[in-house]
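To assess whether the prediction recovers the assembly geometry, we first specified each molecular entity separately, as shown.
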Amino acid sequence: MNNISKLKPGDSVETFYLIKRSQQGVTTQGKPYMTLFLQDRTGEIEAKLWTVSKEDMEVLKPETLIKVKGDVIDYRNKRQMKIATFRTAKEEDGLNPKDFVEKAPMDEDALYESIMDYVIKIENGSLQRIVRQLLNKYGREFLTFPAAMTNHHDFVSGLAYHVHYMLRTAEALCDIYPSLNRSLLYSAIILHDIGKVKELTGPVGTTYTVEGNLIGHIVIANDEITRVADELNIEGEEVMLLKHLILSHHGKLEYGSPKQPMIKEAEILHFIDNIDARMMMMDKHTSQTDKGTFTDRIFPLENRAFYRPEKFE
Amino acid sequence: MNNISKLKPGDSVETFYLIKRSQQGVTTQGKPYMTLFLQDRTGEIEAKLWTVSKEDMEVLKPETLIKVKGDVIDYRNKRQMKIATFRTAKEEDGLNPKDFVEKAPMDEDALYESIMDYVIKIENGSLQRIVRQLLNKYGREFLTFPAAMTNHHDFVSGLAYHVHYMLRTAEALCDIYPSLNRSLLYSAIILHDIGKVKELTGPVGTTYTVEGNLIGHIVIANDEITRVADELNIEGEEVMLLKHLILSHHGKLEYGSPKQPMIKEAEILHFIDNIDARMMMMDKHTSQTDKGTFTDRIFPLENRAFYRPEKFE
Amino acid sequence: MNNISKLKPGDSVETFYLIKRSQQGVTTQGKPYMTLFLQDRTGEIEAKLWTVSKEDMEVLKPETLIKVKGDVIDYRNKRQMKIATFRTAKEEDGLNPKDFVEKAPMDEDALYESIMDYVIKIENGSLQRIVRQLLNKYGREFLTFPAAMTNHHDFVSGLAYHVHYMLRTAEALCDIYPSLNRSLLYSAIILHDIGKVKELTGPVGTTYTVEGNLIGHIVIANDEITRVADELNIEGEEVMLLKHLILSHHGKLEYGSPKQPMIKEAEILHFIDNIDARMMMMDKHTSQTDKGTFTDRIFPLENRAFYRPEKFE
Amino acid sequence: MNNISKLKPGDSVETFYLIKRSQQGVTTQGKPYMTLFLQDRTGEIEAKLWTVSKEDMEVLKPETLIKVKGDVIDYRNKRQMKIATFRTAKEEDGLNPKDFVEKAPMDEDALYESIMDYVIKIENGSLQRIVRQLLNKYGREFLTFPAAMTNHHDFVSGLAYHVHYMLRTAEALCDIYPSLNRSLLYSAIILHDIGKVKELTGPVGTTYTVEGNLIGHIVIANDEITRVADELNIEGEEVMLLKHLILSHHGKLEYGSPKQPMIKEAEILHFIDNIDARMMMMDKHTSQTDKGTFTDRIFPLENRAFYRPEKFE
Amino acid sequence: MNNISKLKPGDSVETFYLIKRSQQGVTTQGKPYMTLFLQDRTGEIEAKLWTVSKEDMEVLKPETLIKVKGDVIDYRNKRQMKIATFRTAKEEDGLNPKDFVEKAPMDEDALYESIMDYVIKIENGSLQRIVRQLLNKYGREFLTFPAAMTNHHDFVSGLAYHVHYMLRTAEALCDIYPSLNRSLLYSAIILHDIGKVKELTGPVGTTYTVEGNLIGHIVIANDEITRVADELNIEGEEVMLLKHLILSHHGKLEYGSPKQPMIKEAEILHFIDNIDARMMMMDKHTSQTDKGTFTDRIFPLENRAFYRPEKFE
Amino acid sequence: MNNISKLKPGDSVETFYLIKRSQQGVTTQGKPYMTLFLQDRTGEIEAKLWTVSKEDMEVLKPETLIKVKGDVIDYRNKRQMKIATFRTAKEEDGLNPKDFVEKAPMDEDALYESIMDYVIKIENGSLQRIVRQLLNKYGREFLTFPAAMTNHHDFVSGLAYHVHYMLRTAEALCDIYPSLNRSLLYSAIILHDIGKVKELTGPVGTTYTVEGNLIGHIVIANDEITRVADELNIEGEEVMLLKHLILSHHGKLEYGSPKQPMIKEAEILHFIDNIDARMMMMDKHTSQTDKGTFTDRIFPLENRAFYRPEKFE
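The predicted structure of the complete assembly is given in tokenized form:
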């Protein structure tokens, strides 16, 4: 098979991929060439096309499906594909670009259903109404956006998938520590990253919006709750507490939260968020590493390398 | 004179003061006594009343004016007043509690006029309307609140006095560096601490509200701008930039700003805020210090002691 | 009732307490007096006995049960008891000092049973044998020691109670994240603080041993595993991994771990440990605080004050 | 036009530039080539000459003016010039290398006059004499040196230009905050970076001297004041205060100041220095960025990227 | 014996001490009393005189020798002396205040001789001349000043005693690592703290001068070398290197050095300084601690407590 | 001569080198090539072989001696060798790979003898027996391993050479500061890095073992002492102290020590270790630098560049 995640130097491929990004360049001899970042559901690879025509340059745009024939080589310890020939996909190939991007392992419907099961468990009426209103307003984006541009949950539906896992852990912790308030914790988990639907540009090839950079998803989420509570005429301590959980969920001021957690549920929200993000990253990197060896250093995990045990999994 | 700021161990007093706070205690011998924090416009002093009746305890509440006769002693290197006798003020004494709290050196009308002069100079219509609307909504509090609970501008009208000085520096810097946008900078200066009218409890004896602790004046101000812009149907980049200036005015994430300054005016706002707060603190402390000596260590000035030159002022 | 945790200034008491610590002093007038720290199951209080005889000084030693008659006063914002008279407990009072110290809410047998249920679930034979051997060796101490000298789980059986809760959270997380290895995680949780049985002096009135200060519970636990594995002739990757989890469970070098977590289970162990310790501290402090107010600043929780909601619990 | 700052990939040029630095290299095929860093008043560009003779290598030295014909390409996201042919400038071309380096927007005479206007305003005679003596001694270098090797004011006359702007801000602040001592502040601003005339090698292509590295401009300036005060027989508190302002002007120990600011004017000097340096960097970077986009990350501005508003300037 | 360092609660004394500092106070009952800090060669103790006359207050000044009769009590875990009666020393008592202050274990002559032995070993003529000139200029102070106000070597002749030990370690390290330059290292050791003769007020009861606070001993020493080298017409790399060693001897910018060590000898100077200061503090504190126990936390040793072994010394 | 450390761009060589590492690559044109890292006793160099056969690839393995003919070029400011032809060494060349790796300047026998001289000086019998037992167990590795993978003492016998120098400094300091315990300090120096024999893979081309990464040399050494003391039935304070010195020898928690130094000898051990490592690095780098210039920035020396004086060595 030609799954990108499996390609090794020495492999030859002849298959379809989606262009994620493309760049034009000029060799030191002055000839044009192109760098394509090709992807399928399993990953991406840098590819070089050393001979290009004007027409090629027109055609090789992001979001285009192409069939390539080429070889994988090792360039400075990284895999690189040298494209020999290519053609763009035709309608009769019967392919859909959507099938060439990474997605959460659960589909949107399953995620929606799972999350709604928890919405029902929000016993506080005001909080449930706020959550429902915001899911109505941003449901589409909420179910398709990634949770981040890079690092963890950086794939289609990553945001909802992340929320789904966090809710499961929250439920378990509320069973073990009954002093935690379920309504507050579930509401805040569902909404904690809702601001990402404005901070990021979209489900695929996402990047930061200007608003994302200057205001940030934490304050965007806070603004949305302010507006929705005003619309629904909801007042009271629970709104303030919900906002506090959103504002403090990064745990420390230096991570961009304007307030540190100052109630129990805020503290626990931060831990649940962290555990799910870290499990996702550790699983992803160790699964790509041989047994008995270490991963590369992982920047968002404090630049540590993780060991994958010989037999112990 | 009996100005509190001038009292020294050895002095005897017989004059009126305002009770700021009061506490009941019991001596190691089991007898009740009271600790009163007395104030006038110039400062405050801790006072002890070693013999108290039940009636005294009823009467000696905060915000009460009393005439005390007593002596100032040195207790562990701090001044303390030992009250011999006291009586509460009567109507015929013709005194007003307002005259016994510290105030800004300019009165509310002068501050209002000065600040409105700058409002007129906000050329961008959207920004001027937002500023006017919020000054209408919170004008009373804006003109009477302190800028902080302790440290700098911790007196009646401290907030507006701080804004007034910042505007003057902003005007000078805009003259020197014409690439700065006056509309944006003036608007943000006027509103940067407007959230304090909800973060703090009031002009006198102020402390933090629950909302102040859990949400904080930065996000409160942001919320107010969100609401007002929605009410006035104002949209556009300027609203986002104004919010960015408010959100980033503490300069660093670890100081509670959820975003660092990312436009020129945001960077300069942070500097102007800092300069005025620091000038206020340095002037206050050095004016209370002898020439040729150092002040005590001042915590919000990185715990430094400042030198007051012999002749050089 | 005379439960120490409930005493307020103004209360009079006549009941039995246990002396935790005692100090002799001399008043500024040169007369001897004694300070006693009295405790019952609910807490402790500082008490003063202003008139003492030579015989009193002999008698008032730590671990002694006395019946005191006295009054609670407010001394510098703290409760203090002024003892009028006292007598030591007699056999006919039928009291046991053990009933006057704070204990975990579960008894030793229940804790033992619960933890053994998890030992059985350690599928890896080598790890199960190491765990059993160490529980045999240090079972008594393991079931009675606190988990710390101050801060969290600082009561009789605190260590086992902490382990018990951590195991429950571990089980939930292993269900949610099946890539985690249960054998490794359960073994490490049970043994992670086993070194405390040598780091601390005992279940009651505990303090650090010299070995605790110079070597520390992390390396002590590592040494015990080294010895037991040698005794049982157990070798292999699992021993190294178990030791790695113990060594890294403080999460960061600056918290005293000689290695950072470098396998998944090590990372998760650190989080589970943290969650249980923090839940314990947050519950303890907020339960002693009025609704709608903040706790004092809690040093091990980054010196934050926590809010107890009005209605939201 | 062929201004370097405006060149884009795809442009062809045929014009004069100054060689800033040059390097010889050998291609992987073993052939010699040269890398030239070419500059004009607006900026610099890296250029490659792939075919070079021995004579070329002799001729292509720094500070040489050459006329080049070539094309601008994109190499790894940076502009690079591929030189086709070149010749050195001849006398009849009538060009002066001085016109090919970046300079302050004000000329030396205007800067000198402006700064002398402030010297006159130094009312303290001792301070004015020290300032005049040092301007006499190092006037030439003071008016032509840059203020830094990179980052801000890194151009001919950058040092005096920086001082000129700082003096204007100082004057404004002294008007607003009359407790500031003008004599002290103006003197210290003029001399604060005078040590750079020995720390750096010269106005063009500047780098650090050995003395600059081992002693540094702060202590060099202090030494010069020590010597001049001794020569002029000036003693007294003002000399000590002036030296303190120089020594503390980096604001914090970790930025290389051996003392933190401990008088008002020292604190304010640090802020004025910072504001001017930051305004210079922010203006430079945003002016090279499209509206509605962000600059690259700017290292000396805490690695932040700055936004240039769409319409708001 | 009545050596202050040996006094314990319960002891009675009748002997001569020197008043180090004295304070007047007023009891809560309004009566005057005095606090005296008494010293002899071995240490100091706080003493209270609860009944004082006007004449007593005149007489009990710092630097006065008095004979006291009193008792040592325990006050809040610290020793305190309660003075019953006292009289000032008379000429016929034949006592000298000098004998009541702590001194280095070597006398000034021995220190001078030892240090001069190393001066002779400075082979570089320029450096030797600079060192000799400065020892001539400040010899008296150099031999009597302490090396610090508190912490290490805070006794008469502490500065020279510290230098003496550092020279011995330097000699040993130059034998082991022959690439070190002896002339440079010896010169810098002798002069590294010479600025303290102006930073501190004197050999006894020392405190910081204004110049010490605003300029600091590092830059003061640098200035002195600048002046002496100018006087002696000495130029050359060695002067710059010597100044670099002085400037960088605190090792890090945040410790007040304007430059980090950038030559070998500078790095080693910092280590030698550190070793001697730390040995002095560790020896002092452990010698006052019982075997098998820990010292109090020692602030300048990163707040660590040190263990004194049972048998192992 | 063809010593690698002396090679400069432009040099031609024809001599024997040892292959340290080798990599296969493919050029952008798709042709195979090889990168060899060649070494001799003086250093290493990267070499390229642009035309390779299948047989060449088989033959060019690490630890192989080859005779190469080639040229040294400059590639991006680094030396690179372009290999023209090569042959593998034959038996008749009479060469030994051991002569092509860097070694300590003293041979193993001399190091052994020197270190045993200090073992004899360990007066405490328990400590001497522990040291002897561990030297017996790991003598071979102890005498041949490097002290580190990179940075300091990263050559054959580097570990023993480092210990040898540290012992000499320890002896000198014990002479100067007689309160230090020689038995403890010598024992700890000899064993402080003994864990490296399991942390690293071997004397040549060393890298970290899995145990090295997950457990680390500090705890490995601690384990070995635990085992040996158990075997020899040695108990007592000295074993605990020895372990404390090993555990704390990195000086700070953030450098991987689970405990900070808490006895004098532990503090001094850390300093001696640091001095020797730093002298080694400073000497190595400055010896490769021209007089009057600075070294490159040296990462383990806090990224400082060191100056090599013109005349002053």
